[in-house]
Design goal:
By secondary structure, the protein is mostly helical. It contains 3 helices and no strands. The radius of gyration is 24 Å and the shape is elongated. 14% of the residues are buried.
Length: 173
């Protein structure tokens, strides 16, 4: 006989230990159960994204990830699907066999891994800009229609943002 092949473990949710057949379904689960704003019901992609959204849009702080296990509520850990899960928790999950949750809602016995607080680098985004897709910022030609760019008449009579009744004619060409 040969050695038993180790099958790759299925994707699982770090926040609640639920196991999924596919990582796309895991991401849908995380957005719906763990990263959904309790005020406006917007679905975000990560815990820090939810925290930033609630602070900028609703002026409210969130101290833990919603619907998470007691030791897994750290809002500062950036987890998207299976990416960003602390290494110690990945190893602990694998050592338990990974797929040993019968009902899909097992409890974690691994300790929470403390992480240092996030430090903001660079300028803060204005309120409402946090929802813009990642690759959109800084792409030429990707301005919203209401925003004019350099050389498009800002501050000039008849330029963008000025209503026709606001234009004063001096009689000179």
């Amino acid at each position: 006989m040969g050695r038993k092949k180790k099958k790759p473990s299925k994707p699982w949710c770090w926040y609640c230990n639920r196991i999924f057949d596919d990582e796309k379904i895991l991401i849908q689960h995380q957005k719906a159960k763990h990263f959904k704003c309790h005020i406006c019901h917007k679905k975000l992609y990560t815990g820090p994204g939810l925290s930033i959204h609630c602070m900028q849009v609703h002026k409210e702080t969130i101290d833990k990830v919603p619907n998470s296990a007691p030791t897994r509520g750290n809002i500062e850990i950036e987890i998207y699907g299976m990416e960003g899960i602390p290494e110690a928790d990945l190893k602990a999950h694998e050592s338990r066999g990974g797929d040993d949750d019968d009902d899909g809602r097992g409890k974690s016995d691994s300790p929470a891994v403390p992480t240092p607080p996030l430090q903001q680098a660079g300028p803060q985004l204005p309120v409402g800009m946090g929802g813009m897709p990642g690759g959109m910022m800084g792409m030429p030609g990707m301005r919203p229609p209401f925003m004019a760019g350099p050389g498009m008449g800002w501050g000039m009579p008849g330029g963008p943002g000025m209503m026709p009744q606001q234009v004063q004619f001096t009689g000179q060409p």
